[in-house]
Amino acid sequence: QHHERWDGTGYPVGLRGEQIDLNARIFAVADTFDAITSDRVYRKGRSYGAAVAELEEWAGRQFDPEVVEAFRRVPREEWDELRRASLMKNAGEASGVLAASAGNVGSGAALGNNAAEISNAARPLPLTFNR
Predict the structure, then answer these.
(1) d(CA 90, CA 97)
(2) Cβ-proximal residues to 2 (8 Å cutoff; 6+ apart), any chain
(3) Using CA atoms, how far apart are residues 69 and 104, in angstroms rounded to an integer?
(4) What is the pLDDT of residues 104-118, one digit of tens each?
């Protein structure tokens, strides 16, 4: 359902507003934020500020405005830390693949060094909704 839009113009069914599952509405905002801020092969990722501006522009049309507002209440520093942890996790996974190909299977070093960062990155975000 994360392709459905708050205003009912999405797909596959054309659900609108609260007909769309809350989890899908949250995922739509998070997925869009990630798509805007992440590097792609065809473009560099845009800034946090640019992503927030786009989410706010589309709040009430593409996105649930309450979800966008909850997203905005997460401090910028939290997003920066999640981004850093994600990049460290990805680097650790790449190191693990290289270590395994070099015959170091089972050493656990690639994951062990980043285990705390990975578990912290997976903690739930403080999203609340005012009703």
Answers:
(1) 11
(2) 24, 25, 27, 28, 31
(3) 47
(4) 444 444 434 444 443
Q: What percent of the chain has pLDDT over 70?
A: 68
How far apart (Å, rounded) are the C-alpha atoms in residues 46 and 25? 22
Local structure of 43: helix, strand or coil? strand
Instruction: Find out whether 61 and 32 touch, Cβ atoms under 8 Å.
Output: no
* pLDDT tens, residue by residue, 32-61: 999 999 999 999 999 999 999 999 999 999
The alpha helices in 1-131, defined as continuous H runs, are 22-37, 48-58, 65-73, 76-101, 109-112, 115-121
Say how far apart CA 124 and CA 67 lie, in whole Å: 15
The mean per-residue pLDDT over the stretch 119-131 comes to: 48
Q: What is the mean pLDDT of the chain?
A: 79
Q: What is the model's pTM?
A: 0.67
Contact between 6 and 16 under an 8 Å Cβ cutoff? The reply is yes
CA 91 – CA 40 distance, rounded (Å): 17
The span from the CA of 23 to the CA of 75, in Å, is 21
